[in-house]
Amino acid sequence: MKFLKNSLWALLCITVAHAQNSTSYWQQKVDYKMEIDVDVEKWQYEGSQQITYTNNSPDVLDRVFYHLYFNAFQPGSEMDVRSRTIGDPDPRVGDRISKLTPSEIGYIKPTSLTQDGAKLKYEVVGTVLEVDLAKPIQPGESTVLAMEWDAQVPVQVRRSGRNSKEGVALSMTQWFPKLAEYDFQGWHADPYIAREFHGVWGDFNVSITIDEDYIVGGTGYLQGEPKKRRGKKTWVFDAPDVHDFTWAADPEYIHDTYEGPNGVVLNFYYKNNPDIIENWKKLQPKTAALLEYFNKHIGPYPYKQYSVIQGGDGGMEYAMCTLITGERKFGSLFGVTAHELAHSWFQFLLATNEAKHEWMDEGFTSYISALAEAEVMEEDNPNPVAGSYRGYNFLATSGQEQPATTHADRYASNRSYGITAYSKGAVFMAQLGYVIGKENLEKTIKQYYKDWAFKHPTPNDFIRVAEKISGMELDWYLTDFMQTTNTIDYGIQNVSEENGTTKVTLQRIGLMGMPIDVYAEFEDGSKASYYIPLQMMRGEKTNPTPDIDRVVLKDWAWAYPTYEFEIPTNKKVKRLVIDPSKLMADIAPENNTYEAN
Ligand SMILES: [Zn+2]
Fold this sequence. Notes:
By secondary structure, the protein is α+β, with helices and mostly antiparallel strands. Helix content is 25%, strand content 32%. The N and C termini lie far apart (80 Å).
């Protein structure tokens, strides 16, 4: 009996170690209680935290890791050196970190750390704190880790920091010792080099004591009016079910609230600067409309508030809030808000590991925010994602493309990271609509939210949802498009007429297979479409243009480089086009059209 039990357990662990799905899925939990006291003269703060960490994994943990992100802002850090050695550095970073003086750098220095009261051994290694536990945490057990630390807020270089270009005093992102995530792929104690995050789900209670003239906004619900004591105020926030906590503070913030759909309170914090006030007022109803769009097309926003905060160095998404620069033209202010708000779903609720699957947060966000922007601004745009297709085409034909499985920090250039994550990721989603049909894509996005919100979905989890919704086999689509640099290139090789029949020969030139839509226009002005399913899909999409009669032809099995079909009609073919929707990311579309002379 014991033996049987053990082997069953081992079998379960092996399954868990190699894949996750919604039935065998587990995730760690961490509840934070933090108190900090800020000195705005020195830009330093003292912090203490007590975290309750629950090990829901099947593994015994004898170590834990924390991120100490502020340590990246020190001369000689990995972030500094990477920025000075990459060919196309982020201009916001450049060599600025190398020039920070001791009073301008960032740091987080732990001064004590205990586990259930017992002192722990730890070592600061760059931006990561390595900790040996006094007592291993057994599966299903919880432990309390208590830390005290001193920190200095760096001069604003990237994302977080003090005294931003626009004069925002404190952009407090990635500011606290943050427990690294342990999931079915093990520890993710990624050093902070340039980008992307992965965190443990949990509840936060954060108490911030700061000079009384500062206004504080960020993640979480304010618990009553801030209490005043000796020239300082203490702001207490509760944030349930999040995996990060961010705040910003400035003595000159205007704080507006606007009621969004479902009673969600939208907060806007921006500097009392006459040049920007009108734009920030105009943004408020538009943000409500964007929220409505995402509620409808992804799933209902589950928190009671969202805050758009002037801060940071561009735009960056956080839990229940975003920090964006505010001195922008209205179109840009609206665009960045649309993008960052969409991230509330793609990463802050559907919390993919951004370092490994950067395209799932940036790409899905770029896709849905482009659609939302077009609808909210009432643009008549047949393909709001067209810019992403252009970006992807540029990269795919440049010879510089790397597979989207590349870790976010380890692309050869910032440009190839950017195009892969944002543009190719958006194309992945839009093109999936070409493969499975628009309705199935819409259903897939909603079901993905239902199945995976408040979890850590992987690419496989997403494509499995699409498979179940569409009834098609789609692993080939994920594998070829995101895990290799195979490209799509189909062409019309030959068109000939014999005895009133038009014989069409298509050619697959690229390595990646796709189902093919061919549209025909005849001399008499009539139209028809021909659909060639890719055999390994084991399914067919519905007719995307029901006003044009569609003929479903026999499958095209991938290995065959050519495919022939006949148009059995006495009508004369005037024109043939492969995929006029241009949703298929064919890298050489010039061979997709045939015109009779
Ligand atoms: Zn983004």
